[in-house]
Design brief:
Elements (H helix, E strand, L loop, with lengths): L10 H14 L16 E4 L2 E5 L12 H14 L14 H14 L3 E5 L2 H12 L5 E5 L4 H9 L3 E5 L4 H10 L6 E6 L11 H10 L3 E5 L14 H4 L8 E6 L9 E5 L1 H10 L1 H4 L6 H16 L3 H19 L10 E7 L1 H13 L2 E2 L1 E3 L9 E6 L6 H17 L6
Parallel strand pairs: 2-11, 4-5, 4-6, 6-7, 7-8
Antiparallel strand pairs: 1-2, 3-9, 8-9, 10-13, 12-13
Length: 402
């Protein structure tokens, strides 16, 4: 018998093959490097640019109040936590901030994890067991998708924001276990808002709990930025879990789970990302505490955010761009194919506007776009400069008439 020999796959060969696939599909990404702080105007490639690419909704990432508190915590508590939270890495400031966050969210407890991504992994992995049913919106964030992959529950998907399809899935999958409906509060690519009141009402018919990832709703919707759950008046609902990030509107880093009083205790004991990751550095905790204080002490952040959002959307529509029905500061401009969106992004940057093109697999094929996010920090001049650049690029590329 003659054996067929082949060359073994090498690490370098695998890396080069996968990179070539990305290049061939025009999907290779090279992140832009900011040469100045994360602000409404920043610097890239030596050029001052209007920044429409960040999630810095309230302008907190470089805010003096947050930096001052971070410096105070750094000097008093040191550079790092020194251990995982369950061994020796829980400082008093960690618990103080979680108490502050729970009070802000109007929940019985809150627990902070290392990121929004790991929060979804930790909470979904802890709560869902074999025999449970979890039903997820088809456009939920990748962190939810990956978190569900680790869970042993039966997993089903319903069409985006389609309550009829959600009911169908619940009807077709009866179970005696826990039933959970999972949705983003604000969807990160399209900027639309989940019909949360209707979802919760339908979930209750089946005895299901509703799990809301509010990464892009926290700091953007609800009184003082308390989020999508508060926007719909569901903050006192015991069957609604509030999950989110601290890296977008709040300007720093981390994720949180806010819910019933016992939820925190269970996650401390079972959530693997919490159990096996070092606690946040004191400076991070200080900046986060300052962010929650600031949004309550000083009005105007959300008003400026939404004034800018309405102006920018209206002007894009006037120029003839398709913003795909966005309802929030996330404002996509549809270009169709990935190469077109990437080229438009490059031309915008040449005109002093930093706005990133997104293609498959981040968004569906044929719906490549530039995702814009205006912030409370943008001025009228910033937005008009960006709109002038959009008009010029859109006409050059035949996306809008003229």
């Amino acid at each position: 018998m003659t054996s067929t020999l082949r060359e073994p796959v090498t690490l370098q060969g695998r890396i080069r093959t996968e990179l070539q696939k990305l290049h061939d599909a025009h999907l290779h990404i090279s992140p832009r490097v900011l040469e100045a702080p994360q602000r409404a105007r920043t610097r890239i490639l030596g050029r001052d640019v209007v920044n429409l690419a960040s999630n810095n909704y309230l302008g907190f990432a470089d805010h003096p109040f947050l930096k001052e508190r971070a410096a105070q915590y750094l000097q008093r508590w040191g550079a790092g936590a020194g251990a995982v939270r369950t061994i020796a890495g829980t400082l008093q400031i960690h618990e103080d901030f979680e108490t502050q966050l729970a009070a802000f969210k109007h929940t019985g407890s809150a627990l902070v994890l290392q990121s929004g991504f790991t929060t979804n992994q930790g909470v979904l992995g802890t709560l869902l067991q074999e025999g449970d049913l979890v039903v997820s919106d088809e456009l939920n964030h990748a962190s939810i998708i990956d978190g569900l992959r680790l869970a042993k529950a039966t997993k089903k998907v319903y069409r985006h924001k389609d309550l009829t399809d959600l009911r169908r899935v619940l009807d077709e999958n009866p179970t005696d276990g826990l039933i959970m409906v999972v949705t983003d509060g604000v969807f990160s690519m399209d900027g639309d808002i989940a019909p949360l009141a209707d979802i919760v009402a339908l979930a209750r018919e089946y005895g299901a709990v509703t799990y809301v990832d509010d990464a892009h709703g926290s700091g953007v919707l609800g009184e003082q930025g308390r989020g999508t759950v508060h926007h719909f008046g569901l903050q006192d609902a015991p069957d609604v879990l509030q999950i989110g990030t601290l890296s977008k509107a709040w300007g720093v880093v981390g994720g949180y789970a806010a819910g019933p009083a016992d939820l925190r205790d269970l996650l401390i004991n079972r959530a693997r990302p919490f159990l096996f990751s070092t606690g946040h550095p004191p400076a991070v905790v200080g900046a986060l505490s300052a962010a929650i204080d600031l949004v309550q002490q000083e009005g105007g952040f959300m008003e400026r955010l939404w004034d800018n959002t309405r102006f920018f959307k209206a002007e894009l529509h006037r120029l003839g761009f398709d913003t795909f029905g966005s309802e929030t500061p996330i404002t996509p401009v549809i270009f169709g194919e990935a190469e077109t969106a990437f080229e438009a992004s490059r031309r915008l940057l040449e005109r002093g506007v930093f706005a990133v093109g997104l293609g498959f697999p981040t968004v569906p094929k044929g719906l490549a776009r530039i995702r814009n996010i205006v912030t409370a920090e943008h001025t009228q001049d910033d937005l008009e400069r960006a709109l002038n650049a959009y008009e010029a690029v859109g006409r050059e590329m035949g996306v809008i008439g003229g």
